[in-house]
Amino acid sequence: MTSSNTADLANLYLGQQYPSATHSSVVQESTRHWCHNTLWGQLFFFVRRIAARSAGSILNADVLLAGDKADLVANSVRLHVLQQLFEPLTEGLARFATYDSYPTPTQAGPGHLAFMAMAYSGLTLEQMQQAGIEQTEQEYLTFLQAQRLGGLGGIQHKSELLRQPLDAIKSPTLQGYLFVKSIQGMLADKNKKFWDPNVFLNFIVNFFFNDIGWFNATLHPNTRPEDIPASLAGYFNSRIGQLRMLPPDVIDQFEQDVADPGRVVHCLNMFTTDADQQAGLALHRALYTDLIQHGEAVTQSRFFQRKYFQLFSREAYIEITRDDRVLFYTPLPSAGPESQMPDIVVDGLGYRLAMTLPNPGNYPPIKAKGVLRNYRVMQVPFNTCLIFLAEEKLLYSHFLANWELLDEKVFLDHFALDGHNDPDNSGIVKIALDVLRETNAPMAALHASTLKKFALELNGLYRLTLSASCVPAELDGVKALMKDHGFDAVLGNDEVLLDLLSFISLANALNIYDTRVMQKLGKRTGIIFREDTLAELCQRLQDKNLYLVRFDAEYTLSTGI
Residue 405 gets which letter from DSSP? Predict the structure, then answer.
């Protein structure tokens, strides 16, 4: 967001088009939000609460019992392993939604895509109602083409992803993204419907994140702490194995049943026995009941912990006046034209009044007095709010006028602001582990060594990554080469070749495969798309045993990423 985009705020306030610069972050956040608002998200919430309860037993006990110590270690291991195990997959799906998803005519499309189409189509609510979803999606598709291929910015955005370390611990994004792409290719070999990015996204999120079997696998009683990672890793591997065994017509059944939660669960758990499914559901009910009995408030926003997410943030200067108005100033460019006279100067920097808002929360009058304040724009599904901060503490929040106003107390109770509150109870678990280190060094060492061992094995769980694009005997060597710098290591840090690889993959995502069309687009976007450059890209990849770029016919060009 640049300081000249005052109109973006006005559009947000009026409930119209979202700023284009926010697109990638919003797609990624909404996909993460979707992944967490699942059975897996509920499981993660339960495990957090159980771990916090174990920590509380340690911190409140006069005498530390061996059983309490073992419970703390076991539940902390469950919490960390469950999070680390799914982080590459979640981030991979978020990047897939960003770079590969576009509107398609399917009943099995992800729910957040419709929201994205509305948010970025540029159509008002009335226009969307008159035009219908098809025109809205077409407007959004046009927007996507401009975002992805309209200039070097979009291409270099994907290049940044491709140069990330291929290491789930250092950075889960590239490992997760390439894993998701490999899964799509494997499923599409069974049924071409999986090439539809939205059919694939909807299916794979439900397959992994709405699997009731995770409850049994995670909370199996009497499991020694050091055995928990292997148990969870084994179940993750079993789900991948089940994907390999899926019958080709499973997606047809899924598309029919997607609107019926009961049928979808049956479809996705086809390899799970009825007894195991019932056991998982019984465990879910027991955990929920236990939460209520301990006096825990169970609201949707608290239960899933992903109700709010950030659209964007910017530096600003905020003043709340005595007549209950909030004056909102954005900084002028330091090298701006002289005609842009500032409305206010703070510490020698000029600010322009961007908009004023009512003060429904009756916050007391304040002035920045030389202290810069920030604002963030947060998204609640189909609602947007401005959040003003002072020294990273919540100063003021305002839900934009044209949407249903939510209870501000709900927001204040559940919005986590840079760790100033502790909704996931990680703080109390950490404190209890510190106590454990002081009172039982061997048990604390067991906790540390178990997590360290799992971290070393995490990449192996994502072994499908690049499996379809590399000779099997060379795959380990390729991954070792890419461990620290991704495709930069493969292409010799050549930005021209990396941008060309990104360009081809983004064109493919918009169903552009004709080399001649790509050459024309390349001229417009500043991509060097000569035959010798393309030949060099292919040669560099093949020299490192990667066969990603394919010529399926004389003029057809595609890539596996």
Answer: P
Sign of CA dihedral 426, 432, 437, 441: negative
The predicted-structure confidence for 464-480, as pLDDT tens digits, reads as follows 999 989 989 999 999 99
8 A C-beta contact, residue 197 and residue 101: yes
Secondary structure (DSSP) of 13-59: HTT-PPPGGGHHHHHHHHHHHHHHSSHHHHHHHHHHHHHHHHHHHHH
How many other CB atoms are there within 10 angstroms of residue 476's CB atom? 11
Reading the block at residue 104, the tokens are 């398609």
Residue 549 contacts residue 537 (beta carbons within 8 Å): yes
* pLDDT tens, position by position, 159-214: 999 999 999 999 999 999 999 999 999 999 999 999 998 889 989 998 999 888 89
H or E element that contains 346 = strand 344-346
Residue 45 CA to residue 446 CA, distance in Å, equals: 24
Q: What is the CA radius of gyration of the chain?
A: 25
The torsion angles phi and psi of 552, rounded to 5 degrees, stand at -85, -20
Nearest to 206 by CA among 260, 286, 273: 260
- Six-digit token pair at 88? 């590459």
Q: Which residues pair with 357 in a beta bridge?
A: 326
Closest CA to 26 of 382, 269, 451: 382
Answer whether 10's CB lies under 8 Å from 89's CB: no
Please answer whether residues 45 and 287 qualify as being in contact, where contact means their C-beta atoms are separated by less than 8 angstroms.
no
Confidence of residue 48 (pLDDT cuts 50, 70, 90): confident
Do 281 and 214 meet the contact criterion of CB atoms below 8 Å apart? no
Q: How many Cβ atoms from other residues are within 10 Å of residue 441's Cβ? A: 10
Question: Which of 87-96, 226-235, 354-363, 385-394 shows the lowest per-residue confidence on average (mean pLDDT)?
Answer: 385-394
CA atoms of 70 and 222, how far apart (whole Å) = 11
Query: Which residues are within 8 A (CB) of 77 and not within 5 positions of it... i.e. 6 or more apart?
Result: 225, 228, 229, 447, 450, 451
| Helical (H) or strand (E) element with 318 | strand 309-320
User: Which whole-number Å values give the CA distances from 206 to 103, 117, 251, 261, 350, in the listed order?
Assistant: 19, 22, 12, 11, 50
Q: Which residues of 449-472 are buried (b: 16+ CB within 10 A; e: fewer)?
A: ebbeebeeebbebbebbbeebbee
8-state DSSP, 372? -
* Three-state helix/strand/coil letters over 90-112: HHHHHHHHHHHCCCCCCCCCCHH
**In this structure, what token pair is assigned to residue 111?**
């729910």
Report yes or no: 539 and 550 within 8 Å, Cβ to Cβ.
Answer: no
